[in-house]
Amino acid sequence: MALKKYFPVFVLPTLAAFTIAFAVPFILGLFLSFTEFTTVIDAQWVGIANYIRALSNDDFINALWFTVRFTVVSVVTVNVIAFALATLLTKGLKGTNIFRTAFFMPNLIGGIVLGYIWQLIINGVLRFFDVTITYDPKYGFWGLVILMNWQLIGYMMIIYIAGLQNIPTDLQDASKVDGASRLQTLRNVTIPLVMPSITICLFLTITNSFKLFDQNLALTAGAPSKQTAMLALDIYNTFYGRIGWEGVGQAKAVIFFAIVAVISFIQLALTRRREVEQ
Amino acid sequence: MSAKEKTMLIRTLLYIILTVLAVAFLSPVFIVFLNSFKGKLFISESPFSLPDKDTFAGLENYFSGLEKTGFFSAFGWSVFITVFSVIAIVLFTSMTAWYIVRVKNRFTKALYYIFVFSMIVPFQMVMFTMTKTAGELGLDTPWGIVVIYLGFGAGLAVFMFCGFLKSVPLEIEEAAMIDGCNPVQTFFMVVFPVLKPTAITVAILNAMWIWNDYLLPYLLIGSEYKTIPVAVQYLRGGYGSVDMGALMAMLVLSVIPIIVFYLFCQKYIIKGIVAGAVKG
């Protein structure tokens, strides 16, 4: 086919940009995680020393646990609430579009702006107790959870609504006729049929929560004393906040990448298996 | 109570629940809006009270915020970077995806998987090395960042275009080729129009990401060219005291274009998300 010769026109621009923005930095990043460097060209091979320093770094371990706890809580709350809202909005009520619009709106606001909006609200509430959000890491944690819910519920709700609307109503009616309770219908009919939506929503909430940066930076910036810093923020601080720690920062980034990759694969494999063919 | 009354009651209850929730969802933005008209010293003190004659500051916060952040220039750069990046992504990745789907060999297959792989890699993995590489190549400019966004956006966009193209029949393309069109003509006259729904989805998902992106523009061009998120964060500065008035006003100004865009393109945004989710 003649198309094959048109490689420079069709593929080269994308491939060149991809190479510069992703491929070279990715490989270079892997390499640099085994070296000590400040400007890339002065890299000295140090083996796995950076990984050992990263894993014995209290800030990193703390950030890892904070991120894991945050992700678990956010994934559960976001998906349960989004699914519940989607169920309410597919009951055939009039005017549901207005509600859908309202619930989705926060999603379009960027992380930095969202962070400052919620900083005002949360500090305003905590003022009644004479403290601020940076007083205790607990406040920062729940603040981030609330923010994440506020941002992601609308998005996941949209996906769940689409999933619920795809279910043929006769299936739910049939299970009602057969005498199934509402809960049984939900568990045995509705949920298996919206499994593809659940898969994608879980995937999106897990990766979004795990990789959170902007919201974290704006809401608490890790305060008090880095205790509310998540992984992405800790890696950023290691790179740009401590001279001589660039190699460790890169090692932390590789570990971060490995965790995200493993989670993505496990999650997709697990939920794909449970999907039902319609 | 009759069955009819019961459904009426349930409906009313549902409406009440939904209304309360919708108000709760919208109130944070509204509270920020109210506070943007208060004197800067009154904001942290009582964020939930309405502005009154002591606390009302008119548009003072807006003027000081605009001055401190250079908001209009930030808005301009945000528009510039978002528009050109989205155009570049839609144009170049759709061409690449067509090539990958139609020229089937080991090379294009490998290329496809590499693009898909890049989707799961978090930004922090390449943050430092990408900033260095782009800097070395002189891409630390608003035009340069468009190239970087094309590279970063390529993964998801190629993936989505490929997913759609696999279901597009070959016949029309072949007919165009037989009629003497070269591949470039065939692509733009026959293939691209068919891709329009996916192109809209790709454009919307990428526009939402690029418009709100903070770290990449901050690291690459932040000292010279500020986008809106960079300008807002700049206002916050270090850990010192913050001009809460200016911050509130800038938050309001950042949110307004998003709400306008949303109200005009709501249909496409919702469709785009659903389509993106099905294929994602």
What does this structure look like?
The complex is a heterodimer of chains A (278) and B (280). Chain A has 278 residues and is mainly alpha-helical. Chain A folds into two domains: 44 residues, no CATH class; 217 residues, MetI-like fold (Orthogonal Bundle). In chain A, 72% of the residues lie in helices and 1% in strands. Chain A has 13 helices and two strands; from the N terminus they run ααββααααααααααα. Chain B has 280 residues and is mainly alpha-helical. In chain B, helix 12 packs across helix 13. At the A-B interface, helix 1, helix 2, helix 4, helix 5 and helix 6 of A face helix 1, helix 4, helix 5, helix 6 and helix 7 of B.
Query: What percentage of the residues of chain B does DSSP assign to strands (E)?
Result: under 5%
Query: Rough shape of chain A?
Result: globular
Uncertain parts of chain A: none
Helices of chain A, by number, come to: 13
Rounded to an integer, what's the Rg of chain A over CA atoms?
A: 23 Å
Shape of chain B: flat
Provide the structure class of chain B: mainly alpha
* Secondary-structure arrangement, i.e. CATH architecture of the largest domain in chain B: Orthogonal Bundle
